[in-house]
Amino acid sequence: MGDVAKHRELLSKLTREEKASLMSGGSYWQTKPIARLGIPSILLADGPHGLRKQTGGGDHLGVNRSLPATCFPTAATLANSWDADLLERVGSALGAEAAAEGVRVLLGPGLNIKRNPLAGRNFEYFSEDPLLAGTLAASFIRGVQSHGVAASAKHFAVNSQETRRMTIDEIVDERALHEIYLEGFRIAVTAGKPWTVMSSYNRVNGTYANEHRGLLHEILRRRWGFDGLVVTDWGGNNDRVAGLIAGNALEMPAAGGETDREIVRAVAGAALDEAVLDERVAELLELIERTEPAQHAGTLPEGSITAEAAPASAGLHDAHHELAVAAAGRSIVLLENRLRTLPLAPGGPARVAVVGDFAGTPRYQGAGSSLVNPTRIVRPLDALRDSGLHISGYEPGFSRRGSQSRGRARRALRLASEADVILLFLGLDEAAEAEGIDREHMRLADNQLALADELFALGIPVVVVLAGGAPVELPFADQAAAIVHGYLPGQGGGQAIADVLTGRVNPGGKLAESYPVRYADVPSAASYAQAEATAEHRESIYVGYRYFDKVGLPVRYPFGHGLSYTSFEYSDLVATPEHARLTITNTGDVAGSEVVQLYVEAPGLAEHAFRAVRELRGFCRVDLAPGESREVRIPLAEHAFDVFHGTDRDWRRVAGSYTIQAAASSRDIRAAATVEIVAGDRPARDAAASAPTTLSPHYVSGRVELASSDDFAGLIGRPLPSPDWPVGGRLTREHSIAQTRGRGGFAGLLYFAIDRSRAVLLALGRPLQANTTRYALEIPFRSVARMSNGLMTEPMLDGLLLMVNGEFFRGVRKLWSAWRAERAARRAHRNPTDG
User: Fold this and answer.
1) Who's near 19: CB < 8 A, 6+ residues apart?
2) What is the pLDDT of residue 771?
3) Checking DSSP bridges between strand 203-204 and strand 207-208, what pairing results, if any?
4) Which of 192, 170, 215 is nearest to 111 (CA)?
5) Which of 382, 395, 747, 787 has its CA 20 to 30 A from that of 500?
């Protein structure tokens, strides 16, 4: 809660209308100033992996231009480094660029759990594991805020899909909510201490996250001690007064004064206590004070920066580019290396053929609000040509958008047939994964797979280099001589990939997520993003490796997997309830780094408990010279031996004999030790006591893909809400534009126009603009007005709703009348009279 006493004098000078005005944006990226009291407007900007300060009109999906900034690897990539120090250095670099540009709030990091591989925004998130996600996020936050710039941990909470993200109700049980979806945020908040948190669009168990007092007040503030400001996601306000009461202070972007007036009316009508409004205003004033260090140049009015102007941060870009290259190098994962095909030594293979469009046109970042205008781009093809390898030629081999091109394929096969080694660059294109849309499947494009099959048939070693922000099915994995995954490695990724392929950098990245053999193996596959109104988390705590390892299902690559050009030996493991110590030795002949993972196996859980087989409870990355040994001490996580007890609504320690496992992945256990856990200062509980008495046996066995609606209802302890909106009813502010589909008349025409525009834009080679059409369909009608900065008022929206509900002409009259009234009001405001 805001420190009202600290800011009481300033609060006393603000009128009620001025207080309300501070609770929403003045433009797309800036807050409103109160000039007479010296309260400045502050600038917020996207920035999970690079600063996106727009030079003209503001937008949420990366369509309009932004100033050049260093494009670092995305969160999904950096997570593979398992390197908290690296994350702090990257955060510090981003904070420095933001500070130089007068940006007060950098909107990142994103740390939602990767529940399903098809989630369109997975490239922006760290991991399927909350300990890894929260630890890396905390380091990133500390780095950003070391420059007086606020970080914003997002999206709080349970933002697990892009489909219908602004209206969907995420239904999740208490165990999974706290152990999986909130635990990463808890770590980020308590260890990183962000100055802002961004609420998510979705509902959580029936209540919009931005209006969820249980999340924003009881958990975030009271339990975790958060003392900063909660900002909505852009357009993420539903009920402005309910949001204020729950704990949200700032609504973004500008709402044209509509919600300011709602706040004033609510206070006047006693629906909102003015003391609550004062608390929220105090939170904003505290944020302004925290982000007022001397190095801030101050903000410029939106749109005042010309595209030709050199950014104030330009002096940082050379050093930050080198950091971006190094960060990518520490995050690249070597998935396969049969017969030690890699590294390719310069002067080695006589002829190296480079095939694949991604070598010449790299996919180095995601799409949407995190889209960065990089200061430079290193193409893998150029870096390979400069590496000393004998590159015999390059052919794109396939069309990037998935269409068949036999000419391209023939030229690639002709080049490859004369080579000694083929470097094949494959991946997901820009339209495949982006904010606002979920992927339709987990496959690479058919034309890429067809070309790969033809190249493997040549009998020449093929090294596959992958690009993409999330898992893909790899049916050729057993045929490839090696597979290198660069993920989305940022502007220096091309150099980092060449360095790994040639051995200048020894890959040490480890997967921060599991790679299923096929999408159907994912426990949420059958239902993910299918329902209209709800997203049922029937798999509960069994997300990622917690599911695959529980049921023993084969995976393509397990959580934590990654190979090296050297080898490591684990020895002398000693464990206590607080930490584990062990010795790591580099037993190879080149320097390298190992990510040591600590898993905790709970007592008697294989047959008798609602628990995962093993859970990550600690990790560290250690760099070693050839033959070097080092003892490492790894603390165990705060909740290493706890479960969240649904009845008690708190963490409870489960006493018993636990196995501490030191591992190279969740399925590569190198050493084990036993520790005895007693109740201590937390009451001891039997593991089964944390589950409801109606618990289905599927939650004990882990076969949650078999859980029925009744099983899940028993788990959450209440009847399930309907997964669909009522059929045939009138569309309201709560409905998304996508629900105009199939309604006929103006509603059907509206859907058809938006939907078909995506196909047209894709055909024109404009995937970023095409993705905005999908985003537009997911917007609820209420946000049409809220995100228009006053261009569409609430009365105008009433007219639009009449039109889509079959009353076209009445709606047109209403819309026209409301537009004229608003225009007259604006004219009167600009030209006041004494009359």
Assistant:
1) 11, 263, 277, 278, 281
2) 72
3) antiparallel
4) 192
5) 395
Kindly indicate whether the domain formed by 566-686 is annotated with CATH number 2.60.40.10: yes
Confidence (pLDDT) at 401: 82
Least trusted range by pLDDT, from 180-194, 245-259, 352-366, 716-730: 716-730
Cis peptide preceding 155, ω within 30 of 0: yes
Whether the pLDDT of residue 66 is over 90: the answer is no
Is the separation of the CB atoms in 804 and 788 below 8 Å? Answer: no
Beta strand 579-586 pairing with 568-575: antiparallel
pLDDT bracket for residue 779 (50, 70, 90)? confident
**What does the block give as tokens for 238?**
């539903």
In angstroms, the CA 810 to CA 790 distance is 22
Q: Is 218 helix (H, G, I), strand (E, B) or coil?
A: helix
Tell me: pLDDT of 334 over 80.
yes
DSSP 634-682: EEPPTTTTEEEETTTTEEEE--EEEEEEEEEETTEEEEEEEEEE--TTS
Tokens of 735: 């409905």
- 199, 216 Cβ separation under 8 angstroms: yes
Q: Is the pLDDT of residue 241 over 60?
A: yes
Q: Which residue has the tokens 């390979």?
A: 384
Q: Tokens 């709080």 — which residue?
A: 156
What SS3 class is residue 623?
strand
Let me know: does 454 contact 470? Beta carbons within 8 Å.
no
Task: Yes or no: say if 299 and 463 are a contact pair by the CB < 8 Å rule.
Answer: no
- Under 8 Å between Cβ of 803 and 746: yes
Instruction: Please state, in angstroms and rounded to a whole number, the distance separating the CA atoms of residues 810 and 156.
Output: 40
Domain ranges, ordered by start, for the chain: 1-38+230-290, 319-513, 566-686, 737-830
Identify whether 194 is preceded by a cis peptide bond (ω within 30 of 0): no
User: Tell me, what amino acid is at 541?
Assistant: I
User: Phi then psi for 286, rounded to 5 degrees?
Assistant: -65, -40
State the burial class of residue 779 (Cβ atoms within 10 Å of its Cβ: 0-12, 13-18, 19+): buried
How many CA atoms lie within 13 Å of 786's alpha carbon, on the beta-carbon side?
Answer: 24
Alpha carbon distance 101, 317 (integer Å): 13
Cα Rg of the chain, angstroms: 27
Task: Classify domain 319-513 by CATH architecture.
Answer: 3-Layer(aba) Sandwich (3.40)
> Which residues, at least 6 apart from 301, have a Cβ–Cβ distance to it below 8 Å?
none
233 tagged catalytic:
yes
Counted residue by residue, the chain has a size of: 835
pLDDT (average), residues 118-141: 98
Q: Which two tokens stand for residue 636?
A: 């165990």
Q: Which of 233, 260, 429, 549 is catalytic?
A: 233
- Backbone dihedral angles phi then psi of residue 276, each to the nearest 5 degrees: -65, -45
